[in-house]
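R.M. (postdoc): so does anyone remember the format we settled on? I'll just put the structure tokens first.
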């Protein structure tokens, strides 16, 4: 599986949690630092961010992907819309949570959210 990391760098412990939860090995991780200019269009900046990841149309549609989304909500949802357009479905995403009472603050993988499954089950409520 290919992890596209648009959030904070992952630790070895977090990578091990991903492998355990997903049942898949991480073949590669692409880390892209996300820094948007709040004065410019987030749609345009999201497209540029996804472009610099360097995957082609076939890769977006056929490679098993896991996304660690950006931490700012408006960037995350705009990037997810861009990814959905390229992939044809919503990718699974990581949800990290702070480990209680950790000093300095440490984070663990809380879950892998299957966004496409969430979307598909919601369609039944229309």
């Amino acid at each position: 599986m290919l992890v596209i990391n648009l959030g904070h760098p992952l630790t070895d412990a977090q990578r091990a949690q991903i492998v355990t939860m997903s049942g898949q090995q991480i073949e590669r991780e692409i880390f892209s630092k996300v820094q948007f200019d709040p004065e410019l269009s987030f749609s345009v900046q999201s497209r540029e961010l996804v472009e610099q990841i360097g995957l082609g149309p076939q890769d977006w549609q056929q490679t098993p992907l896991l996304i660690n989304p950006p931490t700012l909500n408006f960037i995350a949802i705009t990037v997810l819309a861009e990814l959905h357009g390229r992939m044809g479905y919503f990718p699974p995403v990581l949800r990290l949570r702070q480990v209680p009472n950790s000093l300095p603050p440490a984070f663990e993988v809380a879950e892998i959210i299957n966004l496409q499954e969430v979307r598909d089950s919601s369609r039944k409520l229309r």
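R.M.: ...and that's the designed sequence above, right after the tokens. Also worth knowing: The mean pLDDT is 96. The CA atoms of residues 30 and 69 lie 12 Å apart.
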